[in-house]
Amino acid sequence: MADRPDRPELRSDAARNRERLLRAAGELFAQHGFDVTLNDIAHHAGVGVGTAYRRFANKEEVIDALFEERMRDVADVAEAALAEPDAWEGLLTFITRALHMQFGDRGLNEIMNNPAMGDARVAEVRDRIAPMVTALVERARHQGVVRPDFDQSDIIFLQVALSAIMERTRSVSPDLYRRYLAMFLDGVSTRRDTFTPLPVAPLTAGLTHDAVTTPRRSSRAGDRHR
Predict the structure, then answer these.
(1) How far is residue 52's CA from residue 49's CA, in Å, rounded to a whole number?
(2) Among the listed residues 141, 133, 139, the one whose alpha carbon sits nearest the alpha carbon of residue 99
(3) What does the alpha-carbon distance between residue 67 and residue 72 come to, in Å, rounded to a whole number?
(4) Top-confidence range, 25-34, 140-149, 150-159, 196-205
(5) Are 94 and 130 in contact (CB under 8 A)?
(6) How do residues 186-205 score in pLDDT, each as one tens digit?
(7) Is pLDDT of 31 > 60?
(8) SS (H, E, C) the chain
């Protein structure tokens, strides 16, 4: 009987440790890919290895939990966007926030682009998120705020394109993707009489060269050390 008052605190501690482990996993996956262990995640989170194994049986369970948490966040953003009466504002909210959540989070980006996740995870994203994105686009077309041939698949490919820009320019101009997002939005909107001022200046020729060739240099360096 004397133990009962402590149980809520223990549950709270367990929840905090779980969040610390997930946050640490996301950071490590972003820095090192999947070549980390649950022990590494525990040390990075500042919790004991035993605590980590009480929360997750293995690294795969951490990946699943991190994926589920992030997808739930994206779904929440889509629902909030659908609740916005103005279809353009709703669409803009979803694109800007979901883009940052899905691709600004390098740990999640590593998970989403890893072949080990398999087709099941891709299908899960499609089944959970795609219907809401389709509803956002259809409503925007109905209100006449986007070009009539705009399609939900255009948003997917926009995210893929801007993800590549984010990765290539993260070290030289982490906000550069916003420049191309503004261009895209001007291209689909029917509500603009003038072009939107671009929020970020273009890169110089030298920085553009660095951004485009850095992955190639890194790859060659890795080959030399094998």
Answers:
(1) 5
(2) 133
(3) 9
(4) 140-149
(5) no
(6) 999 998 777 788 888 988 88
(7) yes
(8) CCCHHHHHHHHHHHHHHHHHHHHHHHHHHHHHCCCCCHHHHHHHHCCCHHHHHHHCCCHHHHHHHHHHHHHHHHHHHHHHHHHCCCHHHHHHHHHHHHHHHHHHCHHHHHHHCCHHHHHHHHHHHHHHHHHHHHHHHHHHHHCCCECCCCCHHHHHHHHHHHHHHHHHHCCCCCCCHHHHHHHHHHHHECCCCCCCCCCCCCCCHHHHHHHHHHHHHHHHHHHHCC
- Domains in the chain with CATH codes: 1-57 (1.10.10.60), 59-224 (1.10.357.10)
Q: What is d(CA 40, CA 31) in angstroms, rounded to the nearest whole number?
A: 12
Quick one: tokens of 49? Answer: 């290895």
What is the model's pLDDT at position 168?
A: 86
Q: Which residues pair with 110 in a beta bridge?
A: none
30 has a pLDDT exceeding 70:
yes
